[in-house]
Amino acid sequence: MIDPDLSVAERIEAMIGEEIVEAPITTRAECNALVAFQSALVPPFETTVNFSGGITQRCWSVTRTDGSYRVVYLPLAGYFSLCVESDFGPLDIGVHGPALGCFASV
Predict the structure, then answer these.
(1) Which of 19, 21, 60, 90 has its CB 3.0 to 4.6 Å from that of 83, i.e. a possible disulfide?
(2) 91: enclosing H helix or E strand
(3) DSSP letter at 59?
(4) pTM for this prediction
């Protein structure tokens, strides 16, 4: 269990840390995805994410953008999302789950 006394950013970093430790690395592709994911990680920072229907939500970016995509944490849902970059900021595209899984889905 993650310590409830941690800040939101620290809890997100702890979740990602657990994912990295538990990541199944059985192929070169999985190893490459994990290395790329670790290289793209940034300290979590708040960002506004756009959802279909004009809804916005304060979320937490956890990877730098590659120009097209970034991974964010959705605190109300309790999971990560792959977002596409748009003229209006990150846009949720419905790819949800573990941070590494979202990152590797591109």
Answers:
(1) 90
(2) strand 89-97
(3) E
(4) 0.92
Long-range contacts of 4-8 (CB under 8 A, 24+ apart): 8/44, 8/60, 8/75
Single-letter amino acid code for the residue at 70: R
**Residue 57 to residue 40: CA distance in whole angstroms:** 23
Is residue 93 within 8 Å of residue 52, measured between CB atoms? no
Residues in the chain, overall count? 106
User: Tens digit of pLDDT for each residue in 21-42?
Assistant: 999 899 999 999 999 999 999 9
How confident is the model over 4-16, as pLDDT tens digits?
788 999 999 999 9
User: The tokens of 9 are what?
Assistant: 């950013």
> Which amino acid makes up residue 19?
E
Please name the residues in contact with 67: beta carbons below 8 A apart, sequence gap of 6 or more.
85
Task: Return the amino acid letter for 102.
Answer: C
Output the six-digit token pair for 77. Answer: 């849902």
Q: What is the mean pLDDT of residues 88-103?
A: 96
